[in-house]
Amino acid sequence: MLLTQPNKFTVSNRTIKNNHLFLVDTMYGEIPAGNDSGLGLYTLDTRFLSCLQIAMNGTQPVCLLSSTEVGYLSTLVYTNGQFQSLDDNSQECVVDEETIQLKRETILDGALFDKFTLSSYNMAPVKIEITLHFDADFRDMFEIRHLVPYKTRDLQIEREGDNALVFRYPNSTKTLETRILFKDFAPRFIDDRTIVYEKLIYPLEKHEFNIEIQMLNHPTEPVFTIAEGFEDARKRIDLSNDAWCDEVTQFESDNDDFNEMLERSHKDLRMLLTQSDDGSPFLAAGIPWYVC
Description:
Layout: E1 13-18, E2 21-26, E3 40-43, E4 46-49, E5 51-56, E6 62-67, E7 73-79, E8 83-86, E9 92-95, E10 100-108, E11 112-120, E12 126-135, H1 141-144, E13 156-160, E14 164-170, E15 175-182, E16 189-190, E17 194-201, E18 206-218, H2 230-247, H3 256-272, E19 273-275, E20 281-283
Antiparallel strand pairs: 1-2, 2-3, 3-4, 5-12, 6-7, 7-10, 8-9, 10-11, 11-18, 12-17, 13-14, 14-15, 15-18, 16-17, 19-20
């Protein structure tokens, strides 16, 4: 069962964006199931992911850090509450609170790349289950904004072996797809909306796994250059960001607070940079309701 944390933050939502892709989620990095408030993963004025929730051994992880400082990258650090698990002999054991850490880094570059790093600070091996729940509704932005009535969509949900989960919406003119690809190693369990990763993790061990979420539009599929993985995406966007910084006008004052405000504004403008069809850049505003 996936639980919802009470809001402990002044700002309830976060946004990251790169080119035509943007993600709006809660301060805990979640897109709650059934949300009607614009949270989700978008491109081309369509919501391609309407739910992403995380559980650790059936419990809600505690969010210690939530950052979108650079605009195109999200960093979250979770820890655990106390829960029951199994040791390396399949015997029941208690996992004390704040002894498991899950770091999640999300970047956008033609697709969404999630890198999860699981770490244990227990004194003995413990079995950890990370449950991820997904959904897609392919709502048009005007439906999200309640400007037109929401129409029910007949979705197809397919599992492609142990490597992918696909949400598909065919209509009379095109087919929209959200493809969730499981990298590194296969989940232990996959059904139509939920996957479960299982790992016996030893003291001070770190374990990494990656997920890639692609958004496709057939037969006129948008030509997005998709990176080869999280690290490749990070390298590509960092280079692009450095080039942007070299080209734009720089200001500096003798006031540290004012300089920090200028730097923050500079990063915000970089996040709004979007390419037109002919490759020329423009600044897009209006996230999430209408990027224009």
